[in-house]
RsmB/NOP family class I SAM-dependent RNA methyltransferase (Ruminococcoides intestinale), 440 residues
Amino acid sequence: MNDFLLRMKSLLGDEFDEFLKFYNSDDFIKGLRVNTLKCLPEKLCSLLDFELKKTPFCDEGFYIPSDVKSIGNNPLHHAGAFYVQEPSATSAVTMLDVHEGDYVLDLCAAPGGKSTQIGAKLNGTGLLWSNEIVRNRANILLSNIERMGISNAVVSNCRPDELCKRLENRFDRILVDAPCSGEGMFRKNDAEREWSIEHVKSCAARQLLILNSAKDALKNGGYMVYSTCTFSKEENEGVISRFLTENPDFELVDSGVTFGRPTLDYARRIFPMDGGEGHFAAKLHKKGEQYSNYSIPKKNNKIDSKILDFYDSIFIDRPFGENIEVIKDKIIVLPQNYNFDVKGLQILRAGVILGEIVKNRIEPHHSAFTTAKKENCKSAVNFDVNSKEIAAYLHGEEIAVSQDVKGYTAVCVNGITTGFGKASNSRLKNKYPKGLRILR
Ligand SMILES: C[S@@+](CC[C@H](N)C(=O)[O-])C[C@H]1O[C@@H](n2cnc3c(N)ncnc32)[C@H](O)[C@@H]1O
């Protein structure tokens, strides 16, 4: 038996044999989370051709049958109706208990499973700040935030210490889904061959550093969830115990959930026997009274009437608000609550790109259409998830539309915005970004 399994045996005692059954099987536990910004669970269940079964870890989480293949190519996935997410990975945001209006920082956010879950909970209110230290992973995070239609997010590519010093006392809730030794993923990718106690210890040290950075950005009275997808006690319990010793102004609190099993009284561990591949999460409270969010002075910046005309020519009721700024060639609608001094920080996106200025003209941006609801689009075409038209659109082809559809037009799958095209003479020119298209 290898060192990893020996440790699991001592951790699990009588339950080890049950764990081994999962470990030795090729069928791993698969799931998805419905994105309530774009679709309700009942609607998704009625549109997919396989059965969804609820998980215990979050209201929007479902198991999918292990033989379901290529779900990422489903048009509803392209439309952001759901996020493919290992079921127990949704537990940490449930424990964070985000409320509408909260300012939430997700410090280790790529590829964005938990950030997009937080974004749905905020439902366009408050602010989501998603940070990822690795640049190419931050780009993937951004693309998922766009696909899931989150209008009130900031995506940054910063070191946690640099970022949190600049954002001192600004957040009601912080998630630290820390880089870890990933033991909960071993069954999937045989990474246990790379397992070593030195790696576990270096992950634990790095996690403590990240938590000690994150604490500065949390308001007094705020809550922080630390989570990993590993089983080792040097990470998880070890990191939480050391953090609490070093920071007496923090306490471990009961998150009120019943999934998985308790550890350190209030933290939760999830093993495959509990219905997920494996997760650990602990909720911390920063003592003190919580003060309310800064009131945002209404900006009186004069917006060029050409920009407003463009906005109104494509969307109804200015769905992303009017906090508009032109940065280089991009017209950006910033989140309403974006009042941060970001000089020197690597910000990839704040809010929604409404359009780009190309040779004195304004062209709409893909993310504006994925974020708007169909009802807010002046022109929209709608196709069924199984239609040949939506398949053609996602492949990058031109599609036939009725004669009366004209100009920039949202393309929807069963009423959910996926992208856009430009219509004339009964044809819709494809504007689905090349990097997102399904290859033949
Ligand atoms: C467990 S993953 C996050 C998964 C993400 N929360 C989700 O739900 O999709 C941890 C992330 O931490 C990032 N990371 C690696 N080293 C880091 C460091 N020193 N500080 C902060 N983040 C780091 C990794 O690039 C990775 O994207």
The chain has a mean pLDDT of 95.
